[in-house]
């Protein structure tokens, strides 16, 4: 039986990875992080997506939530509420934005590796992306390759078989990510993106801008916004 562990934020990219994994593995385990982030609603949406997937997919899927408070370190608009989320920023800029959470993916991967080891799993999947990623250094291929080696060297299970850090989206534009998801019948009705943490997307943060551009270029309506527009009269379909 092929099994994997997916780092699942509840966002668009990780939702794409979820549907991709369900078509490539017999059993999918997921781990979601509650790190006291501004957009804590994504955790709630992650649970809703899992419930949705269980109702439409005839495969075993497991959900695990891990709590770690990164707000005590601050230094990011996502964990320090006194710092404003940047709006209408040039998403093509090489400058690392204030929404970067110090070594977040390194922390998440460390916990994921430990959890995977308890499950006898060495395939870890995540929605890391080097193109539409807002300049975060811990989303790059060389970082993931390095961490893969570290996980193999530093674990008991790694002495028998190597870890595989799998990034299906690493070189894809947002529109290509959405097309890949739709190829695997992804439903984005609860896939959350906005950094502000409101049910209705702000439409101005990096995450909202990249998402809107992606759906427009891919030629699809955004499932999440269609759902919200249906429940909240007068809500526009695009940010």
Briefly, what is this?
The chain has 239 residues and is an alpha/beta fold. Helix content is 36%, strand content 11%.
Descriptive report:
- It is globular and about 50 Å long.
- β1, α1 (12-22) and β2 (27-34) form a beta-alpha-beta unit.
- The protein has helices spanning 12-22, 41-56, 104-118, 141-153, 174-183, 206-218, 223-231; strands at residues 3-7, 27-34, 60-67, 123-125, 164-166.
- The protein has 239 residues and is α/β, with parallel strands linked by helices.
- It starts with a strand and ends in an 8-residue tail after the last helix.
- Helices cover 36% and strands 11% of the residues.
- It has 7 helices and 5 strands.
- It has a 5-stranded parallel beta sheet with strand order 3-2-1-4-5, with helices on both faces.
- The mean pLDDT is 93.
């Amino acid at each position: 039986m092929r099994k994997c562990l997916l780092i699942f934020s509840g966002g668009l990219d990780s939702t794409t990875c979820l549907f991709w994994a369900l078509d490539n593995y017999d059993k999918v385990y997921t781990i979601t992080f509650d790190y006291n982030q501004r957009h804590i609603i994504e955790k709630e949406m992650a649970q809703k997506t899992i419930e949705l997937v269980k109702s439409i997919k005839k495969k075993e899927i497991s959900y695990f939530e891990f709590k770690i408070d990164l707000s005590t370190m601050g230094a990011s608009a996502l964990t320090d509420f006194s710092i404003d989320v940047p709006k209408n920023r040039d998403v093509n800029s090489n400058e690392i934005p204030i929404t970067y959470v110090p070594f977040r993916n390194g922390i998440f991967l460390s916990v994921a590796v430990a959890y995977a080891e308890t499950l006898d799993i060495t395939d870890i999947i995540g929605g890391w992306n080097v193109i539409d990623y807002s300049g975060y250094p811990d989303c790059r291929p060389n970082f993931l390759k390095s961490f893969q080696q570290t996980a193999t060297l530093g674990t008991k299970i790694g002495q028998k078989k190597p870890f595989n850090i799998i990034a299906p989206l690493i070189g894809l534009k947002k529109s290509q990510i959405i097309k890949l998801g739709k190829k695997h019948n992804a439903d984005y009705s609860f896939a959350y993106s906005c950094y502000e943490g409101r049910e209705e997307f702000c439409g101005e943060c990096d995450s909202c801008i990249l998402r809107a551009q992606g759906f427009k270029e891919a030629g699809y309506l955004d499932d999440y916004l269609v759902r919200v527009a249906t429940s909240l009269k007068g809500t526009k379909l695009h940010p």
